[in-house]
Amino acid sequence: MKIEIDEISKAFGTTAALTPVSLSIPSGALVALLGPSGSGKTTLLRILGGLEFPTSGRVLFDGQDATGLTVQQRRAGFVFQSYALFRHMTVFENIAYGLRARPRAVRPPKAEITRRVTKLLELIQLPEIGARYPSQLSGGQRQRVALARALAIEPRMLLLDEPFGALDAKVRKELRQGLRDIHDETGLTTVFVTHDQEEAMELADLVVVMSGSQTGGRIEQIGKPADIRARPASDFVRSFIAA
Amino acid sequence: MSDLSHATPARRFRAPTEEAPLARWLLIGFVTLALAVLVFAPLIAIFVEALSKGWEAAWKSLFSREALPAIKLTLTVAAIAVPLNAAFGIAAAWFITKFDFRGKAFLITLIDLPFSVSPVVAGLCIVLLFGANTAIGAWLVAHGFPIVFALPGIVLATVFVTFPFVARELIPVMIEQGRAEEEAALTLGASGWRTFLTVTLPNIRWALLYGVLLSNARAMGEFGAVAVVSGRRESATTMPLKIEMFYNEYQGATAFAMAGLLAFLALLTLLLKTWLENRHAGELSANRRGH
Ligand SMILES: Nc1ncnc2c1ncn2[C@@H]1O[C@H](COP(=O)(O)OP(=O)(O)OP(=O)(O)O)[C@@H](O)[C@H]1O
Ligand SMILES: [Mg+2]
């Protein structure tokens, strides 16, 4: 699905989080929102997912105005920074949650839900952990379960907020490849937030470099990793990718 | 390799937060004495006095024509007021923790108001608002639904006095848990109501039970506010009020039998609460830090 962000701004009370930003994401792309702390990356991602509403501007999905769609109507697979797994449910129940929450008319039968959850557990290469609780998993396993849970609803896009933020370097590298594989397999338009420029450059097709200031976060440059490296559009980008 | 014997200290060192032995024993002795005089002695005295004429006599006095209605009324009031408070408490805690709005700090202060206002004042407010000589009160009496000197007034007074318990238990737990799990449920397509039932409620269930227990203990024991609202009518007399009446009428045995029952119910609540604390220490610990 193609995502367009048209002159979106966001203020929390008197704090400006985003100055008007515009961005067009082609269908099936893997995009990184890259920037320092406070540059509005999370805010922009939450606006796409319908968890936050913009102060002004529009969001378009496949050319259709989606600004007014509720979070449920957006059908965005969202992976939270702290994963936000349901702590009182098993891994199986976590992944099945979105399917069970569907209205009766479109809810898959029980056997079908079991089949799909099993398949997702295989996709994230953790077929054995369905009966465990989130507290019994390692950080990397939690991250993968969160991804499976988001994929279970057959989302129209995948949104991830610092998906590898809390993990050590070795696990990060593995999961990076895992996300790339899942993206290539599902073909979902995917947007992920990171402040690690190496991660953004290595993983993404398209990198959006953002900067923060008193007047709110703004987009400094949009481009392929190689282009941004070769031709940084501003001093900010040059120093940020050199860091 | 270095000599390992250096690593094991020859004598036991005192931890920095530990007191000198004398100070420690003095403290422990003082606390034990205070507990004995202020808590255990009165409790034992109540049960000894209640059972001074034997189990049978105590039992009989509780089932007398005078005592039984008061016990029934107290249980009825608790059965209405506690669920009401659970619902109000959840709603207030939900509202305060899940939304950002102006005047939030003021609202949190307001929730604590019943703790700082004398219960007698609370009772008087209800009489002032709904008494037969006010417009609302007169209208309600005319339509056969009196509030003051009747069950609704007692329930109102009890709800007011016990209001903070549930909300105060829930607010720190809900703040600590944040909104992420609820947001996750919403992005997975769940409605707000389904999110509440399947994510919020299971996450707060033990804290909720804890608050309900505290609020129940207080609801059964409330004296001041209920005394004003009941107007000392026989039909609107709860257990604490009845105990005082018996006592003033020199029916000591009956008074203590009923006091024993009330104390027993409170102890039961405390036991349940302690059991909960041990079993679900993790979830409830947020509270202990909060208070
Ligand atoms: N709910 C909120 N209320 C008030 N201000 C907020 C809120 N959420 C974000 N902000 C502000 O908006 C700005 C952008 O925040 P945002 O979380 O989008 O940054 P970020 O790029 O994700 O940073 P980080 O890398 O630290 O996660 C910050 O100044 C932040 O303080
Ligand atoms: Mg962020």
Give keywords:
heterodimer, A: alpha/beta, 6-stranded mixed beta sheet, 9 helices, globular, B: 291 residues, mainly alpha, MetI-like fold, binds adenosine-5'-triphosphate
Provide an overview of this structure:
- The complex is a heterodimer of chains A (243) and B (291).
- Chain A is built from nine helices and ten strands.
- Helices cover 37% and strands 25% of the residues of chain A.
- In chain A, helix 3 crosses helix 4, helix 3 (91-100) runs parallel beside helix 5 (139-152) and helix 4 (110-123) crosses helix 5.
- In chain A, a hairpin with a 2-residue loop joins strand 1 and strand 2.
- In chain A, the strands form two sheets. Chain A has a six-stranded mixed β-sheet with strand order 6-7-8-3-9-10, sandwiched between helices.
- Chain A is an alpha/beta fold.
- Chain B has 13 helices and no strands.
- Residues 285-291 of chain B have low confidence and may be disordered.
- Chain B has helices spanning 21-50, 54-62, 67-98, 104-116, 119-130, 135-142, 151-177, 180-187, 192-221, 224-230, 239-248, 252-279, 281-290.
- The termini of chain B are far apart.
- The chains are: A alpha/beta (243), B mainly alpha (291).
- Chain A binds chain B through residues 49-51, 71-72, 74-78, 80, 82, 84-88, 97-98, 101-102, 149-150, 152-153, and chain B through 180-181, 183-191, 194, 198-199, 202-203.
- The complex binds adenosine-5'-triphosphate and magnesium ion.
- Adenosine-5'-triphosphate (ATP) binds at residues 12, 15, 17, 35, 37-43, 195, 217 of chain A.
